[in-house]
């Protein structure tokens, strides 16, 4: 049965509801975030807002305070869900490296033979707003990352307009969920301010009734705890909101801001404060590049390059392993070169006799048959031509086919002349 994309996903993400929702690998941290939001709100509704209904009866102000707290909390939770349960802008991985960027270089293996190796330029240059920006190649995803894209080591994905990986929402923050992340953080800040203000209001109401602050705090310790909790939380979510307001106004990301300060780079994405805010909040969210519920298509095996069959070479010979064929070619080439370099007739005679004695009697040829036959030299020449083509393909050795043919005929004639001189 065919599997779906989310079932064979190579990243570290977690999927639920059949791939409809995607989370980061640390999605369990969402439970902590939910507790940090829900527990204070529940305490506020039970011990503060419920009493304010009776203290502020005019125009049903007490009920309004309770309803606003509940609705605003639901709004914050929805933004948290939209931030953590959607594709942040993952760029799909390539199945193969980009062929147009492949460069062939030569390297030496252990045997000292030269073999081709693939080389990729690690950096490319692109133009953004009239400025040159360098983009890097990702070995894991086998693609060149677009500007401001980075590979998240936690999710193991390349994320477009990568801001950071937030452990509190258990998801990367990128192009498709940054807007909701900022709205979540800013809304959480407003919720803290609201709970803090209403708790202080209840303390003020109790002070008017009891006369002192200490009596009011003793009567409603929940209000004191909520005020302390909201005050501490404001340093985190409030500071985060202010920092991201600065990033949005200058069209930066958290990751890019740290890199820019470290490398003293120019911000080429800044389009002015107003345009930067419009880009984040008023542009349409791009659709996801991934269809996690789609069925996985079988990968089509790309044909491996092989030498075309030549005249005199059987087609089945091309199926031999390339490495073993190159080694055989090298051995044959060495033998032929040794023969072509010999000047001692006795060594040549002994070599031919020894080679002939190793095979069947029908394979022993005299000098007349060597000169008079049109079969031996062309056969070696065609083989040498094929081996030479392999040598040029592999980059390991290169010998002209004429060397083999000429050397064979030359030595054969030398052998005949020597035989006639003896007689």
TrEMBL record:
Entry's localization field: Endomembrane system
Enzyme Commission number(s) from the entry: 2.3.1.225
BP GO annotations: protein targeting to membrane
UniProt KW keywords: Acyltransferase, Lipoprotein, Membrane, Palmitate, Transferase, Transmembrane, Transmembrane helix
GO CC term (a single one): Golgi apparatus
Chief subcellular location: membrane
Record's keyword annotation contains Secreted: no
GO MF: protein-cysteine S-palmitoyltransferase activity
Catalysed reactions, as listed in the record: L-cysteinyl-[protein] + hexadecanoyl-CoA = S-hexadecanoyl-L-cysteinyl-[protein] + CoA
Keyword Transmembrane helix attached: yes
Pfam families linked to this entry: DHHC
Top-level enzyme category: transferase
Region (Disordered) residue spans: 350-370
Residue intervals passing through the bilayer: 30-49, 61-83, 180-203, 223-249
Membrane topology type: Multi-pass membrane protein
Domain Palmitoyltransferase DHHC: 136-259
Record note on domains: The DHHC domain is required for palmitoyltransferase activity.
PANTHER family per record: PALMITOYLTRANSFERASE APP, ZINC FINGER DHHC DOMAIN CONTAINING PROTEIN
Sequence similarity: Belongs to the DHHC palmitoyltransferase family.
Protein name per UniProt: S-acyltransferase
């Amino acid at each position: 049965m065919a599997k779906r994309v989310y079932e064979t996903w190579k990243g570290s993400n977690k999927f639920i509801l059949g791939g409809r929702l995607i989370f980061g690998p640390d999605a369990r941290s969402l439970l902590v975030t939910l507790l940090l939001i829900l527990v204070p709100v529940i305490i506020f509704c039970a011990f503060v807002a419920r009493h304010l209904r009776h203290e502020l009866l005019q125009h049903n102000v007490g009920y309004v305070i309770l309803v606003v707290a509940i609705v605003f909390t639901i709004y914050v939770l929805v933004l948290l869900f939209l931030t953590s349960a959607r594709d942040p802008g993952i760029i799909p991985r390539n199945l193969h490296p980009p062929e147009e960027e492949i460069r062939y270089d030569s390297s030496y293996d252990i045997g000292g033979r030269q073999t081709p190796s693939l080389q990729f330029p690690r950096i490319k240059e692109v133009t953004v707003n009239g400025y040159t920006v360098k983009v890097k190649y990702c070995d894991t995803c086998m693609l060149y990352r677009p500007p401001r894209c980075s590979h998240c080591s936690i999710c193991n994905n390349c994320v477009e307009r990568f801001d950071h990986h937030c452990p509190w929402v258990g998801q990367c923050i990128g192009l498709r969920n940054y807007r909701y992340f900022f709205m979540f953080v800013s809304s959480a800040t407003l919720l803290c301010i609201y709970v803090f203000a209403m708790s202080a209001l209840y303390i003020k109401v109790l002070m008017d009734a009891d006369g002192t602050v200490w009596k009011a705090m003793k009567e409603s310790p929940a209000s004191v705890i909520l005020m302390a909790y909201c005050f501490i939380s404001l340093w985190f979510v409030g500071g985060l909101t202010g920092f991201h307001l600065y990033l949005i106004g200058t069209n930066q990301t958290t990751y890019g801001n740290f890199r820019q300060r470290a490398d003293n780079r120019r911000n080429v994405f800044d389009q002015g404060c107003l345009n930067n805010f419009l880009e984040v909040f008023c542009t349409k969210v791009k659709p996801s590049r991934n269809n996690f519920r789609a069925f996985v298509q079988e990968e089509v095996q790309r044909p491996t390059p092989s030498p075309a069959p030549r005249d005199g070479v059987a087609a089945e010979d091309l199926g031999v392993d390339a490495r073993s064929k190159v080694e055989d070619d090298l051995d044959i080439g060495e033998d032929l070169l040794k023969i072509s370099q010999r000047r001692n007739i006795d060594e040549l005679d002994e070599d031919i006799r020894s080679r002939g004695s190793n095979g069947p009697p029908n394979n022993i040829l005299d000098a007349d048959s060597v000169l008079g036959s049109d079969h031996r030299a062309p056969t070696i020449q065609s083989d040498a031509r094929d081996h030479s083509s392999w040598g040029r393909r592999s980059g390991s050795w290169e010998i002209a086919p004429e060397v083999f043919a000429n050397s064979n005929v030359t030595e054969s004639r030398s052998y005949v002349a020597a035989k006639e001189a003896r007689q």
